[in-house]
Predict the structure.
Amino acid sequence: MNKKTVIKSLVGSAVGTAGAIVLKNKAKEFLSSEENKRMLMDKGDVIAHRIVQKLADRVSDKGIPYLNRYDNEGYLEGSGYFLSEPKTDAKWSVGFAKSSIIPEKWNGDLYIGGYLAFPPNKANGILNDQLIRAVAFDDNSGRGINVFAVIDCIGISNADIRTIRSRLKNLINDKNIVSINISATHCHSGVDTQGIWGDLIKAVKTNPKAIKQGRTDDTVSGKNKDFMENLFSVAAKTIEEAVLNMKEGKLSFATLDGSMFVRDKRAPYITDNTLLSLKFEPKDKSKTVQAVFLAAHPVCYGSRQREISSDFPYYICEEFEKNGLDAMFFQGAEAAVATNRGYNMPEGLTWMEGIAEYGRSIARFVLDSDKALYKEIEPMLNVKVNEILLPSGNSVLELAGKLRLVNNNMTKVAGDGDDYDLYFASELGYAEFGKALKLVMVPGEMIPEILTGGAFDSSVSYNGTDWEFPAMREIVDGHLSAIGLCNDAIGYIVPDNDFGSVFAPEHYEEAVSAGGKTASNIMSAFIRLLDAAEKIRY
């Protein structure tokens, strides 16, 4: 290289370096503006959803019915009418049963549900069991039996829940069962029961053609068919056993301060601090049924977990069982709420031991609570479940549904010409135990402030608007708790005014949601549900 070339090279290098420095400084200056950051995040969100929506639009809608042809077989509406007072000679009859949902044998792989991974996370062992627990209630008013069951799993669709109900047709008719409400604990270390944590690449290659040809049985998802068939069978058998096990007794509840067990990871950092304890004491002095309602994500083992586990709820129930009780754990409004395992944890525990101790400490906290806090519940149970339609406002969930990765109920509502709008068909429920305890059965992971209050106002919300609905607890007399992921799993339910870009900090939940109007649709449906309940109250 001659001298002239060397000089040119050095000059060019210096100019390039200077240019890079200028561009870097310009970029730094541009990103120092919150307004510019927001603009980039919002544009990125729009572009990402456009790309995914184009992919979704290319998948055939074959098999998705129009609303006028939607089959709601398996829907149970609850009590035919509501009581204002217990009937004369009313009494509680309650039955409990539990079973493992892990089959002895199965074909193919079992994928761990809860964390996306490439390649997908395959189960390589069993740390502790996954179960379904069911409890049946009857106030002996003649209006029928209501069942509440909970499965140790990441989530379960309304379509699969209706499959379970369909296998109980004879029992429903014979025993006058008016509602069967099935929820998930939402453990992220159990077998995939929704379908989105399997071999996604294989599914994308296989499913579009199979759907177009009407071969939906040949589609691929993260759900193992043998596992799911066993789940359906075991769930139906367990619910039947709970109904057949019913006996008279006393029902009571207490609302305890569980704030030390939970923490929120999303602003405004609000948690449902109420730990609801519900217990049934049989007249014949047999086992007490102890149920705990707490809102916190069972994600203690993290994304590297390969052994099947139902996470901390397993240890809550185990501790109760060691004390001679039958036990249940119900998930609440847990959206971005995580466990607070620092509370009252002995030093020197391993990570695994700490998870177990966290669950056991919750059970001991309930067992050690002041018995005077418990209030007896009058033998009166009112339940109403409504079918609801949620507009598809998230291309990611729409793509997953059209690809049959998930089998959430989808339906089309006709528009102009050949156009249609796509909706998710789901259920929302409400229950009154006596006069003082109420439950809302929510089909997803609800942001706590929708239940408790404290949502962002227009001065700080992502969209600069107010959340215009009252807290659920403000419009219901007595104490209201939530059962999350109940009768469906439609993702996160985020207040419309704070539904933002998935690229924004603390806005991951928007990526796994039915859409930005889901929360207002749920709240509107809840208000209508309460109004409908009043119209059938006597």
Notes: The mean pLDDT is 93. Residues 98 and 133 are 4 Å apart (CA to CA). The radius of gyration is 25 Å.
